[in-house]
Amino acid sequence: MKSLTLLGSTGSIGASTLDVVARHPDRFSIFALTAHTNHEKLAEQCVQFKPEWAVVGTPEGARALEARLREAGSATRVGHGPAALVDVAEHTGADTVVAAIVGAAGLAPTLAAARAGKTILLANKEALVMSGALFLDAVCEHHATLLPLDSEHNAIYQCLPPHKAGSGVHGGVDKIILTASGGPFRTRDPATLGDITPEQAVKHPNWSMGRKISVDSATMMNKGLEVIEAHWLFGLPAERIEVLIHPQSVIHSMVAYKDGSVLAQLGNPDMRTPIAHALAYPDRVEAGVQPLDLAAIATLTFEKPDEARFPCLGLAFAALRQGGTASAALNAANEVAVEAFLAGRTRYTSIADVVAGVLDRIEHRAVRSLDDVLEIDREARALALELLGAAQHKPRRVAATVR
Ligand code: NAD
Ligand code: MG
After folding, report:
1. Where NADPH is bound, by residue (predicted)?
2. Which of 176, 312, 313, 323 could form a disulfide bond with 219, CB atoms 3.0-4.6 angstroms apart?
């Protein structure tokens, strides 16, 4: 029986994880569930899965959740705030931590889980992109186990010989090929990209996901973050990580070996497959996913990403090559710009402009501690807000200066 802390249980990955867990009550139990603001949904989940702990963002949220739980006869205890997230991530009550909080907010509890030697099922790619070597050092030093939930990295993990993520590249590997759907704007007239609305950007053709990652998929910043994630997980330099657009999202990624073999993992685009793989690893369990019908799909196509259409992808490669704090700055700037876009405060095309502007202007340095990461995160956010403010008043000039 595996006992789970599920960080970010009310999100898209959280819901898919609980769907798989509910199919196997004999294998998995829930120790803790966490959510930021959605205490209604968290209360429902607590009634169904009976965790020992539930954590929300604020004291008010905790009071509201507690009232709902007591009314429903639930004995789940309630905590709130970042310290409580760390507590449930490192608690001895769970052996496995599913890291499914979106963005930088997931870093502290995910790192705490690594330091407590847990098995970490990692969806929160931003945490690894920000902290890179620090995170992997914590995993190694405390004998934690890292299993990727991100579908591409989970696919690569499945195509590699058995190994520990973060333990270096396998000698026979030539390169890894991350597939990308190309998102909703793959064929849209580039002259109209500035008119894209948040509603259009979050409508992904193949995957149903949270709002932030959906925008990242549209700009292909998601693939850029995944390139950095793959670098850390599989120990390959940027030159040996390739991105290939594959609009059907059936091949979830590939590993090319030196002897010419290319291994791929295929499946319907449903996150319950990588989640079930990582939850049950090394066993295989039923995930509720439709069997793949290749005859019905008939055609799988591939194309190279258009760098002019997807500038965020090139920015992520540049940050990875630069090293040090550049990836954390890229991530922070992107989070701020995407939030502004989703709130209707800036244009879709400003996302790449703001990220490029922050990477250009920020003072890059080496990462020696978590404090270095948090400091660059703060600086990059402040700079991104400044650029966004300038963009609102003088959109043309800022776009010109940051390019
Ligand atoms: P989502 O927006 O649907 O859910 C996010 C979860 O994080 C929610 O439970 C929310 O309550 C919690 N959260 C948000 N802000 C928080 C904060 N400040 N403090 C604490 N908790 C907070 O997002 P998602 O689509 O489930 O994605 C989660 C993570 O998984 C992201 O890092 C994403 O990149 C990654 N991921 C998602 C998918 C997918 O298919 N959705 C696939 C691969 C990777
Ligand atoms: Mg992915």
Report:
1. 10-13, 38, 124, 126, 210
2. 312
